[in-house]
Amino acid sequence: MSEGTTGKKAVKPAPRCPTCGKPAVPDFKPFCSARCRDVDLGRWLEGAYAIPAVEADEDEDDEGRY
Ligand SMILES: [Zn+2]
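Above: inputs. Below: predicted complex with zinc ion.
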């Protein structure tokens, strides 16, 4: 915080879009576009709803065998 004591304003690094790495656009901060925002939201939701479908399938398969 107290880095710039020379009176010069430190150049703020432009925030990057977490989805594609492009410079963020203020309208879609911190993303570069509505699309990237949706993509990130989709990923987040996927993680929140992470359903171990594969494991469940395996379990069903095992039970079906017996
Ligand atoms: Zn982007």
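The pocket of zinc ion is lined by residues 17, 19-20, 22, 31-33, 36 (CB under 6 Å).
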